[in-house]
Amino acid sequence: MATIRIHTTQNVTLEYEVGSIGDRIVATLIDSLVLVAWAVLWGVIFQSVGSGGSHETTDWSSASGIIAIIIIAFILAPVVFYSLASEIFFNGQSLGKKARHLRVVRLDGTAPRLGDYFLRWLLRIIDLYLPFAGGLVAIITIAVNGKGQRLGDMAAGTTVVSTKAPAGLLPDLGPSLPLEGYQAVFPQAADLTDHDVALLRQLLSRSLQQGNYVLLNETATKIKQLLHVQSDMSDEAFLRTVLRDHAHVIAAG
């Protein structure tokens, strides 16, 4: 599987496996099934209401225009905004992406912003829903781009990566030192004890293997509180940087 190196604004390099076209297609199909299930649910509800009540109370054609618009908007809103809302509230993952262990990340290592998710969502119209194309634009763009980016990703500065650890291989969380001339981003990392570092490696490894981003966020939050630092880096990038800084500062001292 292709890999991509992400150089963060703190001069740290992270390496990810790019989400494969096959996994992204399956994730899209899963998300489509979720939306189809939503539509079927409402179809069943309307059919049940229409067949269970009197003609006067179930004649939808006599409903006022405003009520009809509200009902239609309520039904269509999740269909239209599903992708945008799920990626915003679930750390770059829809249900389909979570099932296939995929996640949206920025190429500079920081967490995607609301505007990034909005651009990806807006350009889905061209990438996936262009008439007579049927997603070919996205497939071709991802195949030739080399960074796993469709048009929406290129505009937003994002890509989709795999969160699965390669079979039989744990994430590289060892205390390897940065390149010569490296300066610690968080020198406070030296305050971590050996026990803290061992626990941090264990939690980071577990959260990445399991795709548990709640645990990843909680770990990053705890480390920030412990070191009294702030960062706009993604949780994974922050924790990897802390480990690298700890190894660097301890070796230099």
Provide the fold topology.
Elements: E1 3-7, E2 13-18, H1 21-52, H2 55-58, H3 65-89, H4 95-99, E3 102-106, H5 114-122, H6 124-127, H7 136-145, H8 151-156, E4 158-162, H9 194-210, H10 213-227, H11 235-252
Antiparallel strand pairs: 1-2, 2-4, 3-4
Helix pairs in contact: 1-3, 3-5, 9-10, 9-11, 10-11
Subcellular location: Membrane
Protein name: RDD family protein
Transmembrane segments: 25-45, 66-85, 121-144
Question: How would you describe this protein?
Answer:
This protein is α+β, with helices and mostly antiparallel strands and 253 residues long. It folds into two domains: 3-162, no CATH class; 187-252, no CATH class. 57% of the residues lie in helices and 8% in strands. The chain is built from eleven helices and four strands. The protein has helices at residues 21-52, 55-58, 65-89, 95-99, 114-122, 124-127, 136-145, 151-156, 194-210, 213-227, 235-252; strands at 3-7, 13-18, 102-106, 158-162. The chain has a four-stranded antiparallel β-sheet. Helix 1 (21-52) packs antiparallel against helix 3 (65-89), helix 9 (194-210) packs antiparallel against helix 10 and helix 10 crosses helix 11. The radius of gyration is 23 Å and the shape is elongated. It is a multi-pass membrane protein. Residues 19-157 form the RDD domain. InterPro entries: RDD.
